[in-house]
Amino acid sequence: xIDIERQFKTLKYFVDGYYNQSVDxxxxxxxxxEFRDEEPESLINALRAELAELQKLIDNGxxxxxxxxxxxxxxxxxxxxxxxxxxxxxxxxxRVLNNKS
Length: 101
Description:
- The protein has helices spanning 4-7, 9-18, 28-38, 41-59, 63-77, 83-98.
- The chain is mainly alpha-helical and 101 residues long.
- α2 crosses α4 (41-59), α3 (28-38) crosses α6 and α4 packs antiparallel against α6.
- It is globular.
């Protein structure tokens, strides 16, 4: 049994603090930059690793586990990231995280 809460704790922290319902979509890149620039490198790397795990769920079409992650993320942030939107979310976060300019 996968412990979703433990496996995706950094993603939950990121979504709760940087992508909650008070953040407009056009502000999201700035919030990702804020996370990248203000959080410790270990946390940034943990987020990258968890996004890679999320990517595996998408690649494997594991809707059941993805739904559990979606519920975890929605609990505090009140955001839904559905399987169909997961790829765009991952791509956007990684693009900004990896672009140091």
